[in-house]
Structure formats: structure tokens, C-alpha cells
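hi support,

uploading two proteins for the ticket. first:
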Amino acid sequence: MATVQIDTKRLLGMEEDRALRLIVAAGGIACVVMRDFFPLVKNTDFRMDRICVEIKKGLVVRAWCG
């Protein structure tokens, strides 16, 4: 399993499509875990190559590795 080199703070405020493309381009797996306050299905295992994001009104409001 590889580690993704991406600054998650850079994703904040970014449009969802652009943020997910950036994560994939960096070699990571993008996972939307919440959209407009509705939780979505997510894995409970920890992976260094997965970037989890929360979306509100089409924008990334939170992003973390996991």
C-alpha cells in the first residue's frame, strides 16, 4: 500500500469534482463519506492511500487521510 503525497488542507473549499480528480491524480483513492450532512457508507479500515472528504453544497469542507 502506497502513501499519497497530497496536502488535504489544499482541498478545502475546492469543488468536489476537481478535488476528487486531484486525489486520483496523486495516486490516491477518493472516498466521499458525507454529502450535505448525510453520512455515506465508508470503510472502517485505515489506509494511507485513501483520502476521505466531506462535501457541503458541492464544496469540500473537510478532508483527511484514512
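and the second one:
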Amino acid sequence: MAIIVPLEYMEGYLLPVASEATLLFMLGVVLGSFLNVVALNFDDTGGWLRRRHSACPHCQARLHWFELIPLVSYLALMGRCRSCKKPIARSYFWIELVMGLATTGLYLTFYPLYTWWQLIGAVVILSLWMVALLYDARTMMLSDKMLWLTLILALLWRSTFGGMYLVNSLVSAGVAALVLLVIRYAGTVVAKQEAMGAYDALVGAVVGAVVGWPYVIITLFLSFVIGSVYGVVGAWRRKVTIKKSEVPFAPALLVGGYLTWIFGVSVYNWYMGLLL
């Protein structure tokens, strides 16, 4: 009979797993707050950040430290600015929460497969993914500089697992980029308009480098499903046709990539079990 050890008693890297998971959640929440500000103020044309101080988007009142505590401040202020009382976008709260959960998900999924330093590297890559996701979702633009940096870091990170992992990542990144480039050019010819963003193939390479082969196939499948659902819902809300609705595809790729990162091996093994 299997003995189930409670999470709080499982040995982590330095502390019990429950304690480390809580700390990783708190770190993720703080990162989510910071990355949201980075994405809001990111400027790829001249510098990396345009504004230095956090302020209310309505009255421009500078926010004090107690108004910047992730999750807590939003709940304490009931989602409104302390100065002008106008509502604060709910996205601030949800981005912080999602980043906290995503960071914790990496830890709980890959402990003890990752070393402590590999886990830190994974969180850094996840953070860069979040900035790219938010920036593209809000502006329909991507930064090639940041994507190339993320791709290089992803390949270096994968190389820490061994040379074969690096080769696997290169193959996976190449396949993802090639598939998306073919879809982009074929779609452009058929639709007679740009069918996909110029840097979406680079995003695919970034995601492919992390999830590896053959799991990148799952990422591409999930991405098109997520992008299609988002496009249909967005078109319905704006009361326009799908053809006239522009959908940022990079967020779908990154969300699909994260889901594959966490569940890809299980999904792949389940699918292969059906075939055998």
C-alpha cells in the first residue's frame, strides 16, 4: 500500500515543499505586479521603460508604497484609486494572481527534477514570457530584441540539462518557427492580407526551445485552439466578423506553451497510450 506523505512534510530544496511553494507563490505575485508595470511602460523604439513612477491612470496621482502591495492593496482599496476613487483595472489583480499560480505550478510540477538554479532559470523565462504576452495583448506588437534574448536564455537554460537537451531544443524551435512561417505566408497568399504577425514565428521558436520535441506539437495545437476561441469571443463581443477581427497570436502561443510545459509529458504519454 502506498504511503501518502502530506505536502507540508515533504522535503524541498531548503525547506518543506509547502513552505517553498508558498514563498514561490509570493515571489510570483510580486513578479506579476512588476512585470505588468514593465509591459505597460515598455518602449521598444527608444528605451526599455518610459516611466519611472507608478501612478493612477486616471488622476496621475503618484502611488505610495502601501498602495503597491500585490493583491492586498487592490483588495484593501476595493479596486479603486485612493485619491480620485475611480476604478482600477481588474487586470492588475488577475495578472498578479496568475503569475503567482504559474510560478507555483512550475515548482510543484518539476520539483525535484530541476535543481534550484534551473528552477530560477525557469522563473526568469516565464517572466519574459509574461511581458511578451501582456505587451502583445495590449499593443499588437512584439519586441524582437526581447524575444531573441529570451530564445538565447532558453537555449542556455536547456543546455544545463545536457547536450542532447540542447539539440532537442534547437530542433523543436526550428520546427515551430518553420510551421508558423509556412502558415503565415500561405495564409497571406490565400487571404490576400497579413495572416500572422512578423514575429510570431520567433515566439514559436522561443516556446519550442523550452518545451522541446515532440511536445511542441501539443503547443501548436493548443495555441490554435486558444487563438480561435479568443478570436470568436472577441469578434462576438465587438460585433464584427472573424475576418475583420485582429487577434494577437503570441499570447495564445505563450499560454499554450506554458500548459505544455506543465502537462505536456502527461498528455503525450496519454495519447501514445491510446495508439499502442
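thanks. also noticed: The mean pLDDT is 84.
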